[in-house]
Design brief:
5 helices
Length: 205
């Protein structure tokens, strides 16, 4: 996950390599067809999939960070506006997540990917429900009117934050597996394209 940008660059480099091989000479129809198929798999499916999923992953991490930031104001009893700002920031993050989701969801999936995606959907719903409960506490904090009330709300806040951890972790792990799978499939498609282009060019020598 941490090397996602590097992985994307590697796939792009392999795609460029395919194009370079094709540029050295025209090959037979079969070779061109195989290369075209590989390029479509990379450019139209795998790279958009990785991009969309990475937006979702980044957003999930940003949601967690925004939730944690609320704790900075625990002993500030006039910070209602900070809690409101946190909720607004999270709403913006969710909008960003939805854009990534819409980019990925309509794209073709491998059979293995379909299984992982169904698992992820269940885990994601559980994570969203846990985060909704955290939001309820943050919203209550934004309207609290006393030190005593805020202290009690922070008891609820920490309990709900702790309860959300396993749901966050499960969804994050499965999401990482889906991203890694798309990277692997993209790499295989790139290699297949390179092999097809090289074979066709060798036939022309």
């Amino acid at each position: 996950m941490n090397n996602l940008t590097v992985k994307i660059k590697l796939i792009l480099l392999m795609a460029v390599a395919i194009t370079a091989l094709l540029a050295t000479g025209m090959a037979g129809w079969l070779g061109i067809s195989n290369v075209t198929s590989s390029m479509k798999e990379i450019g139209e499916v795998r790279l958009p999939s990785i991009l969309g999923l990475d937006i979702v992953h980044e957003g999930q991490t940003a949601i967690r960070s925004e939730n944690r930031r609320v704790a900075f104001f625990e002993n500030d009893y006039s910070s209602q506006d900070k809690y409101t700002a946190a909720l607004n920031a999270k709403e913006t993050i969710w909008q960003r997540i939805n854009k990534g989701w819409k980019l990925y969801e309509p794209l073709p999936q491998t059979k293995e990917e379909e299984v992982l995606w169904k698992q992820f959907l269940l885990e994601w719903d559980a994570f969203k429900l846990a985060d909704k409960r955290v939001n309820e506490t943050i919203s209550a904090l934004s309207h609290n009117s006393s030190e005593k009330e805020q202290k009690q709300l922070f008891v609820d806040y920490y309990q709900r934050m702790e309860a959300s951890v396993p749901f966050f972790t499960k969804a994050e792990i499965t999401l990482g597996k889906i991203i890694d799978l798309n990277v692997d499939v993209g790499n295989i498609a790139a290699k297949d394209g390179i092999d097809a282009a090289a074979f066709s060019n060798n036939r022309m020598l």
